[in-house]
Amino acid sequence: MTQVPPIPELPAFLARMHLRAAEVSEASDVYAAGMRLWEEAGRAVEEGKLAGDLCALWGALTDWVELKPDEADRAQAAMRQTAQDWLNLDQADRCAVEGYLDHWLHDVCGYERPSTDAGDGALYSQGLPLTPTLTDEGGRAYQARC
Fold first, then answer.
1. Is residue 120 a part of any domain in this protein?
2. So what's the pLDDT on residue 139?
3. Residue 122 lies in a domain
4. Range of the domain at 46
5. How many separate domains does the chain show?
6. pLDDT per residue over 2-35, tens digit each?
């Protein structure tokens, strides 16, 4: 098995994401806290793929609340679980972060998985575009905000 290097980039960004995730996990208004996390990730998108993936993830989760209000309770529960999973994650373990992103972006939010022909299959290290497959109640596909 190939040893994957730890995540050295963006330590300040990771610290901010940790604080925002803690807010989401404890918030009475989960949606508002999720929006703040999405905004924080969005401000860092140009700094790296990890920020872009987290922005896409939280954009999809907050869009879920906005576009499917009848599923708001379920979407907010997913937001709280996403935040709790991030807080429990060893953010220095690139493989753990990849697994987190794989689960939440693809299994939960419905983004298509990138082709494994592009290399080692790592999400945020490849810079591959992610394509949302969720649709709103009118059957229209929606784009993540990032």
1. no
2. 55
3. no
4. 11-113
5. 1
6. 344 445 556 788 888 999 999 999 999 999 999 9
What's the rounded Cα separation, in Å, for the pair 127 and 48?
Answer: 9
Distance between CA atoms of residues 98 and 89, nearest Å: 11
Residues lower than pLDDT 50 in the chain: 1-6, 118-136, 140-146
pTM surpassing 0.90? Answer: no
Does residue 1 fall inside a structural domain? Answer: no
